[in-house]
């Protein structure tokens, strides 16, 4: 019985890790960047707080207040580095997977 419970806990943990921590965070994912893909630049759909998360982290890297229509997404520098963009803010980030989430 104990082995079955431990196996269930391990399976649940594995499922959360595979799905990413985005499931744990309250809010709505707005723009996502998958490692190795082309960066996407979008817009904040409405006024609010937007946080940048690495898919493996439960704590945001940064949080900014944006207005509807502000830039929100990712871009590459001329040197090829990845940058997270939120309005007038530019955040250097590593070549990993990230997402911007509008917080509730």
Model description:
The protein has 104 residues and is an alpha+beta fold. The protein has 1 helix and 8 strands. A 4-stranded antiparallel beta sheet has the order 1-8-3-4, with no helix packed on it. It has a 4-stranded antiparallel beta sheet with strand order 2-5-6-7, with no helix packed on it. Strand 6 and strand 7 (89-93) form a beta hairpin. The model is unreliable at 10-23 (pLDDT under 50).
Secondary structure class reads: alpha+beta
Task: List the helices and strands in order.
Answer: HEEEEEEEE
Percent helix, as a range, is: 10-25%
**Separate helix tally:** 1
Number of E-type strands: 8
Which stretches are low in confidence, meaning pLDDT under 50 for 5 or more residues running? 10-23
Order of strands in the sheet with most strands: 1-8-3-4
Distance between the termini: 40 Å
Oligomeric state of shown chains = single chain
Mean pLDDT equals 85
The whole-angstrom Rg is 16 Å
Main sheet attributes: strand count, strand direction, barrel closure: 4 strands, antiparallel
Approximate strand percentage: 35-45%
Shape: globular
